Amino acid sequence: MTSEMQQGEWVNNLLKGTVGGSFVASARNAGLTSAEVSAVIKAMQWQMDFRKLKKGDEFAVLMSREMLDGKREQSQLLGVRLRSEGKDYYAIRAEDGKFYDRNGTGLAKGFLRFPTAKQFRISSNFNPRRTNPVT
């Protein structure tokens, strides 16, 4: 008994929306799945902080979705345009799978912009006369 993988048809979908409250809720209302919303946030994380989006900001997401028997099997993010406070931000997937802006500059950086889930306050000030705790 052999099992063959069925190939679906890949269809490109352009989903547009306006931020009403949170970006996640607005993107879900526009037709994106949770995994697709996560892919958008990951692609754009180097350019902006999604927590600072305001009501009325616009977004457009180009997704390639594999359809099999009328059901969505998998999807891939191809591009994002986000307009916030009159400025456009782009993330475009190249053939190498990495994201670039409109000028062809890579979006991935060496360090995370926000390395922790939430921001922490540094608890102590720097003092040059502090004694070394080891000595």
Automatic annotation (TrEMBL):
Single GO BP term: proteolysis
Protein name (database record): Csd3-like second N-terminal domain-containing protein
Highest taxon in the source lineage: Bacteria
InterPro entries this protein is in? Answer: Csd3_N2 (IPR045834), Dup_hybrid_motif (IPR011055)
Coiled-coil region(s) at which residues? Answer: none
- Annotated GO MF terms: metallopeptidase activity
Residue span of the signal peptide, if any?
A: none
**Segments forming domain Csd3-like second N-terminal:** 7-128
Which organism was this protein described from?
Escherichia coli DORA_A_5_14_21
Return the Pfam families for the record.
Answer: Csd3_N2 (PF19425)
Keywords carried by this UniProt record: Hydrolase, Metalloprotease, Protease
